[in-house]
C-alpha cells in the first residue's frame, strides 16, 4: 500500500467520524444512549463508502502443488503392426492410463507420432513413415521450462528425418525408450536407399544408385536384378560377409520410351531368410523428350542470380543459362523463357528482339533498375521515377487466380529492397503479392502476372529473393516449398497455352509412402476465380476398374483433394464442375513403396543410445510395471509447491458491499423503531 493511499484512508476515517458526531451529537435534537450506536453505524457506513471510492489494492497470495509432467509418445507407424507388437503397445497404453500411483505422481500427456507428433486419441498403426527425431524437436518447445521425462514407445526404425540417436544429445529431458519389436538378429539382406532422378530424357541412359546391406556373420552371395515389367534391364552378383556388410550398386538404365516407367529392384533371398519384403523396392522415372531452357540475363553480380538457378533447376525439366545483355542478343529464340534481372539501358537491344519474337519474359527489379529506360521498353507497368529506395515485405492476395499460390507465409519473410514510387498496371494483370511496409499492408503490387494478347509476363518488384529461400529452409527444413513457388512462376511464364476455366495441378506419379494430393482451379466466364463451385473427381484403377469418387475442398485460391488412401497402381481420373458442363481428364501412377515393411528387428542400439544421451533407461515392453514403479519413486520427479501473488482492488470484494448494505439497513430500522425520521 502506498503512502498516498494510507493518507487517504486516514482522511476518510476522520471524515466518517466527523459526519457521525455532527449528525448524532452536535445536531441531534434528542441525545440518548442509543445515539452512540447510531453514530457507530453511521461511521462505519460512511467510512466504507469512502474506502470504496479510494479503492485501495491489496496482495492476495495462493499456494498450489504442481505435479511434474510425463510425456508418453507412441510410435503409430505401420512397422509396429508388421512386427506384431500392436496389441502389446495398446495394452501398455492402458496400463499407464490405469496406474493410480503414476497418475497421482505425474501430469500425464499422451502423444503419437509417425510423420509428425499429434495428440494420442486412438492407435491404428497406419502411418507410412516414421520420424522419431520430431518427438524431440516438438517436446523441446512444448516442455521448455518444465521437468517432463519422456516415455518413447518405438521399434527405433526411422524412415526419414534427422538421426534421432544424435538429435537426442541436445534434448534436455530424460527419455525412457520402450522396445516394441523383436530384438533377435536374423540373417537378412536389405535393399536400402535408392537414389534416382525423377526425370530422364528419351534415348538417354539414367543412373540408379542402390544401397544394399547384410545383417549376419556368414559369407553369402546374391543377385541384384532391376526389372521394368518383365524385362530385365540390369543384373549383377553381389557378395557379403561379416567384414563386408554393405554394397553400393550403380546401374545405367536406358530410357527408350516417353512416359512414366516403373522399375523393381530385387535382391535374391539367401537360405532361411525370414523377411523377404525388404529385398524388393520399387521406383519410377518419367521419361520426357525435352526440357525448358531458361535464359537469365543480368549485367551485375548478385546472390539472387545463384539462388534463381538453384531454385529453377531443382526441377529436372529446367536448365538455366547465364548471359549479359550483349551476349543474349541474337540467342533468345533458343530459350522458352527469358528472365531479366534489374534491367538497365544496356537491355534495350534485347527488349527489341523480345518484342519482335513475341517471347514471354519474367522481370525482376530492384534499386539498381533504370526505370527511365524500363518504362519505355515495355507497356505492362509504369513505375514512378524517384531516387529513393525502401524495404517491403509480401502479403499474399487471397483472390489471386492465375495459378495455385503455395501456402508460404510471405509476411514473415525478410524484407526486399525496392525502388520507392507508385506502380501503375497498364494492362490486364493479376496481383499475387501486395507490398507490406512495416505493419501496413498496401495496395501496391509486389508480384504480378500479365497476359497481353497471349504473351505472358511476370513482374517481381524487389531484390533479395535469396533471403526468402533461406528463410523458407529455416522454417521448414527444406527448400521444396519455396522452389515450388518459383517453379509455378516459371511454368506460367514459359507456357503459351490459352487460359482455361478449369486448370489441374498434379504429378504424373507419386510414391506410396507419401501424400497424393491434386489441385484444381475453376474460373467463371469472366475468368475470375470462383470459390463457390462444386468440383468432384472420379478415379478409376486401370487394373481392377474399381471406382473412387470424392469432392474437392476449397483451400485459399485453389481446390484440393487428398487421395493418399488409394492403393498403388495406375489410375485415370476425371474432374467435373457440377452444373457447368466442364470436365478435365488425366492419369497418374502410385508406385508401391512400403518402407515400413523393410524392418525385421527393433533398433536396440539406437534406442539404447537415446537412453544414454538423456540420462534415462532402456526398457523392454514386457517390463512396463518395473518402468512405472521406477518413475514413481524417482526423486528427480517430485511435486513442487508454488505460489501466486495477485494484486486485488478492494472494489472487487463483494462482501464489503453486502456489509455496507447491512449497516444502512440496521441504522434505518433502529431509527424507525425508535420513532426517528
Automatic annotation (TrEMBL):
Keyword flag Metal-binding: no
Official protein name in the record: VWA domain-containing protein
Entry keyword annotation includes Transmembrane helix: yes
Keywords: Membrane, Transmembrane, Transmembrane helix
Transmembrane stretches, start-end: 6-25, 37-54
SUPFAM superfamilies (UniProt xref): Class I glutamine amidotransferase-like
InterPro entries associated with the record: Class_I_gatase-like
Amino acid at each position: 500500500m502506498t503512502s498516498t493511499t494510507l493518507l487517504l484512508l486516514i482522511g476518510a476515517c476522520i471524515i466518517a467520524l466527523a459526519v457521525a458526531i455532527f449528525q448524532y451529537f452536535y445536531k441531534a435534537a434528542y441525545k440518548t444512549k442509543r445515539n452512540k450506536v447510531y453514530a457507530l453505524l453511521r461511521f462505519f457506513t460512511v467510512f466504507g463508502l469512502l474506502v470504496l471510492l479510494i479503492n485501495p489494492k491489496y496482495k492476495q497470495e495462493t499456494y498450489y502443488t504442481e505435479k511434474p509432467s510425463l510425456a508418453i509418445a507412441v510410435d503409430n507407424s505401420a512397422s509396429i503392426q508388421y512386427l506384431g507388437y500392436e496389441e502389446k503397445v495398446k495394452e501398455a497404453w492402458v496400463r499407464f492410463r490405469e496406474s493410480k500411483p503414476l497418475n497421482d505422481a505425474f501430469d500425464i500427456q499422451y502423444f503419437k507420432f509417425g510423420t509428425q507428433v499429434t495428440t494420442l486419441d486412438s492407435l491404428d498403426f497406419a502411418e507410412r513413415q516414421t520420424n522419431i527425431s520430431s518427438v524431440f524437436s516438438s517436446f523441446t518447445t512444448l516442455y521448455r521450462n518444465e521437468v517432463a521425462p519422456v516415455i518413447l514407445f518405438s521399434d527405433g526404425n526411422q524412415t526419414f528425418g534427422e538421426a534421432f540417436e544424435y538429435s537426442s544429445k541436445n534434448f534436455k529431458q530424460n527419455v525412457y525408450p520402450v522396445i516394441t519389436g523383436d530384438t533377435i538378429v536374423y540373417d537378412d539382406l536389405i535393399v536400402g536407399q535408392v537414389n534416382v532422378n525423377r526425370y530422364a530424357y528419351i534415348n538417354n541412359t539414367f543412373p540408379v544408385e542402390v544401397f544394399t546391406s547384410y545383417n549376419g556373420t556368414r559369407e553369402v552371395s546374391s543377385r541384384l536384378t532391376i526389372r521394368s515389367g518383365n524385362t530385365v534391364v540390369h543384373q549383377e552378383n553381389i557378395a557379403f560377409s561379416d567384414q563386408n556388410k554393405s554394397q553400393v550398386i550403380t546401374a545405367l538404365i536406358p530410357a527408350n520410351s516417353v512416359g512414366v516407367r516403373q522399375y523393381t529392384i530385387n535382391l535374391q533371398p539367401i537360405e532361411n531368410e525370414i523377411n523377404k519384403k525388404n529385398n524388393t523396392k520399387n521406383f519410377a522415372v518419367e521419361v520426357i523428350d525435352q526440357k525448358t531452357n531458361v535464359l537469365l540475363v543480368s549485367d551485375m553480380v548478385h546472390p539472387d542470380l545463384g539462388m534463381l538457378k538453384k531454385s529453377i533447376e531443382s526441377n529436372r525439366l529446367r536448365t538455366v543459362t547465364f548471359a549479359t545483355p550483349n551476349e543474349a542478343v541474337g540467342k533468345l529464340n533458343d530459350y522458352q523463357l527469358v528472365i531479366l534481372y534489374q534491367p538497365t539501358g544496356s537491355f534495350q537491344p534485347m527488349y527489341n528482339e523480345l518484342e519482335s519474337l513475341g517471347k514471354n519474359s519474367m522481370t525482376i527489379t530492384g534499386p539498381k533498375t533504370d526505370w527511365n529506360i524500363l518504362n519505355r521498353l515495355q507497356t505492362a507497368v509504369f513505375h514512378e521515377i524517384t531516387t529513393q529506395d525502401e524495404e517491403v515485405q509480401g502479403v499474399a492476395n487471397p483472390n489471386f487466380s492465375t495459378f495455385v499460390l503455395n501456402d508460404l507465409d510471405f509476411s514473415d519473410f525478410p524484407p526486399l529492397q525496392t525502388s520507392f514510387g507508385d506502380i501503375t498496371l497498364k494492362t490486364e494483370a493479376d496481383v499475387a503479392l501486395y507490398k507490406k511496409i512495416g505493419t501496413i499492408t498496401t495496395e501496391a503490387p509486389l508480384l504480378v502476372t500479365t497476359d497481353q494478347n497471349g504473351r505472358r509476363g511476370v513482374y517481381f518488384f524487389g531484390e533479395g529473393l535469396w533471403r526468402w529461400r533461406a528463410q523458407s529452409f529455416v522454417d521448414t527444413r527444406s527448400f521444396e516449398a519455396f522452389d515450388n513457388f518459383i517453379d509455378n512462376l516459371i511454368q506460367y511464364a514459359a507456357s503459351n497455352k490459352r487460359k482455361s476455366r478449369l486448370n489441374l495441378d498434379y504429378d504424373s506419379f507419386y510414391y506410396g509412402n507419401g501424400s497424393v494430393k491434386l489441385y484444381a482451379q475453376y474460373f467463371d466466364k469472366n475468368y475470375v476465380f470462383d470459390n463457390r463451385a462444386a468440383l468432384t473427381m472420379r478415379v478409376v484403377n486401370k487394373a481392377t476398374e474399381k471406382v473412387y469418387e470424392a469432392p474437392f475442398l476449397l483451400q485459399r485460391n485453389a481446390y484440393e483433394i487428398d487421395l493418399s488412401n488409394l492403393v498403388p497402381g495406375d489410375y485415370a481420373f476425371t474432374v467435373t464442375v457440377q452444373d457447368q458442363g466442364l470436365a478435365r481428364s488425366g492419369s497418374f501412377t502410385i508406385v508401391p513403396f512400403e518402407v515400413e515393411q523393410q524392418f525385421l528387428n527393433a533398433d536396440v542400439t539406437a534406442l539404447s543410445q537415446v537412453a544414454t544421451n538423456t540420462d534415462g533407461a532402456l526398457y523392454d515392453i514386457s517390463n512396463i510395471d518395473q518402468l512405472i514403479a521406477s518413475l514413481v519413486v524417482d526423486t528427480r520427479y517430485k511435486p513442487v509447491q508454488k505460489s501466486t501473488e495477485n494484486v486485488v482492488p478492494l472494489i472487487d470484494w463483494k462482501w464489503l458491499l453486502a456489509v455496507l448494505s447491512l449497516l444502512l439497513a440496521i441504522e434505518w430500522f433502529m431509527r424507525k423503531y425508535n420513532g426517528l425520521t
